[in-house]
Design goal:
The chain is 33% helix and 20% strand. With 254 residues, the chain is an alpha/beta fold. The chain has helices spanning 59-75, 97-111, 129-137, 150-156, 165-173, 196-209, 233-245; strands at 10-16, 20-26, 82-86, 116-121, 140-144, 180-184, 186-188, 191-192, 213-217, 229-230, 249-253.
Length: 254
C-alpha cells in the first residue's frame, strides 16, 4: 500500500492543487502518524499501520528548521506562495500550536511577506480557546466538514475520540466568517456524499456558518481503502455551483 509519511518539521515545497507552491510544516513525528481522525481516504494511511517512534518536533525545532528553509529558498529566489501546516496528523493537537503559529507569522513577515499562512485542520481542537485565537491570526484557516451526517462521519472520517458534529458547527460559527470550509466528496461501497441527501443539509449548514470560502475536492492519491472512487468533475461542478449560488466563493479540485 502506497502511503505518504511526511518529513518533520518541514517538508517540500510541494505544489498544492488549492494553494500554489506550498512549504509544508508538519508538527507530527517524521516517522509515523498521529491524528484524531482515521480517515479511510487519508494519503498517510490508517493510524494503526504507521505508529511513530519519534516525538513531535519542539517549538524551537520548528522555528529553527523553518527559518533555515526560508533563508535557503530566498537565496535561490524561489519563495513559497504559502506556508501550510499539514502532514502526518492534526496540527492543532501540538501542545505548543499557538506559540508555533506566532513564530511562523514572524518568520513569514521577515523572509517572505507575500506568502500566506495556512492551516489544514480537521476541526477537532477548535473548542480550545488558544487554538481558536491562533487560527484567527492565520490567512487561511481551513477547517474540515465532510458532511453533517454522524453516521457518514463515523464510517469515513472515523474520529478516534468523542466527536459531536453539532459542537463542531457551533465552534466554526465562533470564527465569525474567518474560516474556509474544506469538504471531501467521494464514493465507495455503501458510501456516496455527492447526492442531494448529503449535499442539501451540508449546504444549509455552510450557509449558517457563513465562511469566507469553501474548498471541495476529491481523491487525488492512493487511499488505504481500495474501494473508494473519485467524485466526477460534473458532480463537483454541480456542488460548487450550488455553493456559489448561495453567495459563497467555492473552488473545486478534481
Amino acid at each position: 500500500m502506497a502511503t505518504i509519511i511526511y518529513e518533520s518539521p518541514i517538508f517540500g515545497p510541494v505544489h498544492s492543487r488549492r494553494l500554489g507552491i506550498s512549504l509544508g510544516i508538519n508538527l507530527m513525528p517524521g516517522d509515523g502518524k498521529i491524528c484524531t481522525f482515521d480517515c479511510i481516504y487519508c494519503e498517510c494511511g490508517f493510524n494503526k499501520d504507521h505508529r511513530p517512534t519519534l516525538p513531535r518536533p519542539t517549538r524551537d525545532e520548528v522555528r529553527t528548521a523553518l527559518e533555515s528553509k526560508l533563508r535557503q529558498m530566498g537565496a535561490e529566489g524561489k519563495l513559497p506562495d504559502v506556508l501550510t501546516f499539514a502532514g502526518n496528523g492534526e496540527p492543532t493537537a501540538h501542545p505548543h500550536f499557538a506559540e508555533i503559529i506566532g513564530d511562523t507569522i514572524s518568520l513569514r513577515d521577515r523572509y517572505c511577506p507575500k506568502a500566506k499562512v495556512s492551516v489544514l485542520s480537521n476541526s477537532t481542537f477548535i473548542h480550545r480557546e488558544e487554538v481558536r485565537e491562533a487560527l484567527m491570526l492565520v490567512d487561511n484557516n481551513i477547517l474540515k466538514l465532510d458532511t453533517v451526517s454522524p453516521d457518514y462521519i463515523n464510517k469515513v472520517d472515523r474520529p478516534t475520540g468523542h466527536y459531536d458534529v453539532e459542537r463542531i458547527i457551533a465552534d466554526m460559527k465562533r470564527f465569525r466568517g474567518h474560516l474556509i470550509i474544506q469538504t471531501m466528496f467521494l464514493k465507495g461501497e455503501g458510501l456516496d456524499n455527492t447526492g442531494n441527501e448529503y449535499v442539501e443539509p451540508w449546504l444549509q449548514t455552510v450557509k449558517d456558518i457563513a465562511p469566507e470560502a469553501v474548498m471541495i475536492y476529491t481523491i487525488d492519491r492512493e487511499t488505504p481503502d481500495k474501494q473508494l472512487q473519485k467524485a466526477t468533475h460534473e458532480e463537483l461542478d454541480a456542488i460548487r455551483d450550488r455553493v456559489v449560488a448561495a453567495g459563497i466563493a467555492c473552488s473545486a479540485s478534481y
